[in-house]
Design goal:
single chain; 244 residues; alpha/beta; eight-stranded parallel beta barrel; 10 helices; 8 strands; 15% strand; binds 2-phosphoglycolic acid
Length: 244
């Protein structure tokens, strides 16, 4: 992975087929393809691949293959041309009971099948109020990266997404984000003696706060949810994040 800022758009479970076509027509231009990753609903992945986007899958199975109705394996995604996999998004953790062990299994299976895992971590509002953000992040990271090798570190991305900032229009201050990103990088360095891990920020990134957010000098990019659904807004975020 190159040493440039990346912008990941997480479209979540939004849009029907016609809307996806419209979206593609609008977003198609000016996309900095090697620095932008789009994570559509899995059934629409081929649409995006056909237009040469870099694509991430929003979730993968923790199993290799077999009788797992409704699941999609890392190998299946890779065989289609997918490069990235979101793993452990807070919605998966909260709504689908994914725990740190599952996250670790998925991270390992992604790497084994040549997908770059984008490992999502973040504290809840309660964690923040109880001043246990670092403790929570430490646990999430330590589990997620368990049994990985130092070579694997080149292939992972961590997305710091405070749960309380997702879809709420609330974001931490630049100073708080910077301190937390430093903490995450230090932790990975302590665990793996690796100091180049890529860390993104996610949670209510939009066209109004992106200029402010790019000033955080230890950030490697952004994970954008709601704002990535609006082509103009997403293009603006990409432009600022990639060029400034
Ligand atoms: P948001 O979502 O940008 O809508 O807050 C971010 C995410 O869930 O990854």
């Amino acid at each position: 992975m190159e040493n440039k800022r990346i912008v990941v758009g997480n479209l979540k479970m939004n849009m029907v087929a016609d809307e996806v076509s419209n979206y593609l027509n609008k977003v198609n231009k000016n996309i900095y393809s090697d620095q932008v990753v789009i994570c559509p609903s899995s059934i629409y992945i081929p649409y995006f691949l056909k237009q040469r986007y870099q694509v991430g899958i929003q979730n993968i199975s923790s199993e290799n293959s077999g009788a797992y109705t409704g699941e999609i394996s890392a190998l299946q995604a890779y065989s289609l041309g997918v490069n990235y996999a979101l793993i452990g998004h807070s919605e998966r953790r909260l709504l689908f009971s994914e725990n740190d062990l599952t996250v670790n299994k998925k991270v390992k299976i992604a790497i084994k099948n040549n997908l770059y895992p984008i490992i999502c971590i973040g504290e809840t509002n309660e964690d923040k109020v109880m001043l246990r953000t670092e403790k929570v992040l430490k646990k999430q990271i330590t589990y997620a990266l368990k049994d990985l090798t130092i070579e694997d570190m080149d292939n992972i991305v961590i997305a710091y997404e405070p749960v309380w900032a997702i879809g709420t229009n609330k974001i931490p201050s630049n100073r708080d984000i910077k301190n937390t990103i430093s903490y995450i990088k230090l932790l990975v360095n302590n665990l793996y003696h690796y100091n180049r891990v890529k860390v993104l920020y996610g949670g209510s990134v939009n066209k109004n706060n992106i200029e402010q957010l790019v000033k955080i000098d230890n950030l490697d990019g952004f994970l954008v949810g709601g704002a990535s659904l609006k082509p103009d807004e997403f293009l603006k975020i990409i432009e600022v994040a990639v060029t400034k």
